[in-house]
């Protein structure tokens, strides 16, 4: 084997080693980027859950749910005054919005919201069902009105 052939072999071996090192570094970089992407997705989902919780915990939303659960559950829906109707409407709208966000599957762990608010969701839906049906059949109403709230109730585990 000539000196040229020996040199060519050494260069090929060095190139092959460098190629393997490059492949190793690329694979390692892909693994790092994948783990960073997963961490970003988890952080985004956590932030989404926190945003929904903050939305449900606003003073107005809590007051509306408290009114529905404590007061409206004791009265026939035809006896509700204007303020009580506003609380009923707000409770329906809030749960409808939350359900719409959960239905689009942006949050993988939607059970965190559903399971923690299930008693309230179920109770509010039961109390507000006649109110919802009335809104749906009124002029300008629609059968799909607050249908996400119906979906949310159906997602709740039954005790």
Automatic annotation (TrEMBL):
Q: Name one Pfam family in it.
A: DUF4760
TM ranges? 6-27
Q: Which UniProt keywords apply?
A: Membrane, Transmembrane, Transmembrane helix
Entries under InterPro entries matching the protein: DUF4760
Q: What is this protein called?
A: DUF4760 domain-containing protein
Q: Which species?
A: Pseudomonas nabeulensis
């Amino acid at each position: 084997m000539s000196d040229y052939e020996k040199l060519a072999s050494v260069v090929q071996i060095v190139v092959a080693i460098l190629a393997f090192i490059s492949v190793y570094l690329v694979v390692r970089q892909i693994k790092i980027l994948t783990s960073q992407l997963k961490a970003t997705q988890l952080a985004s989902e956590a932030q989404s859950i926190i945003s929904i919780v903050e939305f449900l915990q606003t003073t107005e939303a809590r007051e509306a749910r408290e009114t529905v659960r404590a007061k409206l559950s004791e009265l026939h829906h035809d006896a509700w005054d204007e303020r009580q109707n506003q609380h009923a409407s707000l409770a329906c709208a809030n749960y409808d919005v939350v359900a719409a966000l959960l239905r689009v599957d942006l949050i993988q762990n939607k059970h965190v919201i559903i399971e923690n608010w299930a008693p309230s969701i179920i109770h509010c839906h039961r109390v507000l069902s006649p109110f919802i049906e009335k809104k749906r059949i009124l002029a300008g109403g629609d059968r799909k009105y607050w249908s996400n709230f119906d979906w949310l109730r159906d997602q709740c585990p039954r005790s």
